[in-house]
Structure formats: structure tokens, C-alpha cells
């Protein structure tokens, strides 16, 4: 069988081809064809973006949102470290910091809640307690729940029923809604200890002020 030689347009190496077919342009060993296709696709997508048009991938994600989200979840699950590094780079960039600042200014309450959640997770990790993801739906439900101590609906905060400092874990089953005053008085106590202390203080006779 006749053997011919050709120069790969991707890597420039001289390769051999057998048979009577049309001469190849890329060598199959180094996947030069795939690299060339990716470069051509990138050039085409960049031209569409510069013209303000949708790329084929953006159009597909728009028409198939559920499948796109499922693909994203699968990619993050199979390459967690890679996507953590990508998110770190995005967050540390100038654009990422500007976007984060604008979002915090537009959503102050959500930003405070996320900050509290992060602080609670950090405390739980530092004490080697279990940390579980709390959904936004559960947080909204707790935000609408009156204070379990006094029934107030103002200045509500999340509190751990079993304090993190005493081995409690960060999960929806260990969270309750308290107003700022009740949360400060509860501190790192259990609910039964906190209520017992409040009853003792209420039963204590008022202190008499001596006349000068």
C-alpha cells in the first residue's frame, strides 16, 4: 500500500498517511484537529460577542435551563477543587469585587444574613462540629418566624438552639429565630438554662435604693 507524507497544520510535524484518500491536514496523535476546531470556535464566539449577539452555547443554555443547571452541578461535583479556584479568582478580580459591593448595597439584609451564616460555619468548623447547608427557603421561613422568646417580629437574628461553642451543629434543626435582645441574653446557654435564668431574675425582688 502506498504511503504518503504530509505536514500537520497544527504542530508542523511531518506525518505519514497510507491509502488513496484525500491528504490529511492534521496528525491524529496529538489531537491537533480538536485544538484547531476549538480555536476556530473561540474566534467565531468572540466575533459574535463583539457584535452583541448570542453564541450557540448561550442560546442552548437559554433554551435548556434545566439541563444546563444539571450539567453545571455535575461539573462542580466531579471537579470541586478546580471550580473553587475559579470562584476564588473571579471573587478576587476587580470586576468581582465591584459586583459583590454593588450586590451588597442593593441587598443589605441578605448580605447580613450570608455574613452571619459564614460566621456560624466558621465557628462550627473551628470547634470541629458538623456543618450542614441551610437553604434560602428555610432562612426565609425563619426570618418570618417571631422571636421564640418574646414574640417580637423586629430585629430578628438566627440563633443556635444548642450553641456552637457547646458542640451544637450548624443545621436547620438547630436554628431558631430570636430578637436581638433575647439573643444577647441567651448568649451561649441552652434554651432551658436561658428560660430558667430569666424566671429567676423575674422572681427576684427589686433592689431597694437607699436614701442618701
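^ Assign residues to that structure.
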Amino acid at each position: 500500500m502506498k504511503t504518503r507524507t504530509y505536514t500537520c497544520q497544527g504542530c508542523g510535524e511531518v506525518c505519514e498517511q497510507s491509502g488513496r484518500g484525500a491528504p490529511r491536514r492534521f496528525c491524529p496523535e496529538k489531537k491537533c484537529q480538536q485544538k484547531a476546531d476549538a480555536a476556530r470556535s473561540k474566534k467565531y464566539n468572540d466575533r459574535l460577542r463583539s457584535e452583541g449577539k448570542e453564541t450557540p452555547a448561550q442560546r442552548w443554555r437559554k433554551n435548556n435551563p434545566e439541563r444546563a443547571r444539571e450539567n453545571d452541578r455535575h461539573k462542580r461535583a466531579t471537579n470541586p477543587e478546580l471550580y473553587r479556584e475559579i470562584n476564588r479568582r473571579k471573587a478576587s478580580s476587580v470586576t468581582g469585587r465591584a459586583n459583590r459591593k454593588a450586590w451588597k448595597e442593593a441587598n443589605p439584609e441578605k448580605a447580613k444574613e450570608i455574613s452571619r451564616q459564614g460566621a456560624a460555619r466558621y465557628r462550627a468548623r473551628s470547634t470541629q462540629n458538623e456543618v450542614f447547608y441551610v437553604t434560602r427557603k428555610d432562612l426565609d421561613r425563619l426570618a418570618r418566624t417571631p422571636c421564640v422568646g418574646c414574640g417580637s417580629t423586629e430585629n430578628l437574628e438566627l440563633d443556635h438552639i444548642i450553641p456552637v461553642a457547646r458542640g451544637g451543629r450548624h443545621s436547620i434543626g438547630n436554628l431558631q429565630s430570636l430578637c436581638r435582645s433575647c439573643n444577647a441574653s441567651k448568649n451561649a446557654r441552652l434554651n432551658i438554662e436561658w428560660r430558667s435564668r430569666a424566671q429567676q431574675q423575674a422572681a427576684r425582688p427589686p433592689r431597694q435604693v437607699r436614701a442618701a
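The longest helix spans residues 32-50.
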